[in-house]
Amino acid sequence: MSSGMIPLLTQPITLEGQSPIQGFWDGITIWKKLNAPYSLGSYVKVEDTLTLQPGVHFVADGGWLSIEPGGTLVAVGTAAEPIVFTGVTQTPGAWDGIYFAVHNRGQVHRLEYVHMSYGGGDSRELIANGLITNYSAGLYIAPSSFRHSSR
């Protein structure tokens, strides 16, 4: 695709390495562990269930992951295979972070064995900045780490 945008998805898919990842995602999606990190483009807006398998690794150069109303993030790693979000550069603010929009009741996002670093940038317009910005009532975080953030 010449625009670099990934099309609106309407059927469940398993992503195995399309990069950079950016645009709107609508449809149940599973991102598998690869031998190389996923490249997070300017933004990814998720409007359905996004499941990240253990060992998934993201590298971002600016941009953010936004879980929109109706979207759910299930990022469950393991101690041996954590899920990693980090910046292209090892500089606080190298990417923005994850934004959880206002959700319908009953939706619960899960972050388990997730390591996030070098986020807290400010490229998002009209969105509060931070490595994690949560306007959702249901966010469950278990053994995880958040390091070297600018906010």
Notes on the protein architecture:
By secondary structure, the protein is mainly beta. It contains no helices and 15 strands. The protein has strands spanning 13-15, 21-25, 29-31, 38-46, 49-52, 57-60, 64-67, 72-76, 83-87, 97-100, 109-112, 114-117, 132-134, 139-141, 145-147. The strands form two sheets. Strands 2, 4, 6, 7, 9, 10, 12, 13 and 15 form a nine-stranded parallel sheet that branches. A six-stranded parallel sheet has the order 1-3-5-8-11-14, with no helix packed on it. The protein is globular, with a radius of gyration of 14 Å.
Short overview:
With 151 residues, the protein is an all-beta fold.
Which SSEs are present, and which pair or pack?
Elements: E1 13-15, E2 21-25, E3 29-31, E4 38-46, E5 49-52, E6 57-60, E7 64-67, E8 72-76, E9 83-87, E10 97-100, E11 109-112, E12 114-117, E13 132-134, E14 139-141, E15 145-147
Parallel strand pairs: 1-3, 2-4, 3-5, 4-6, 4-7, 5-8, 6-9, 7-10, 8-11, 9-12, 10-13, 11-14, 12-15
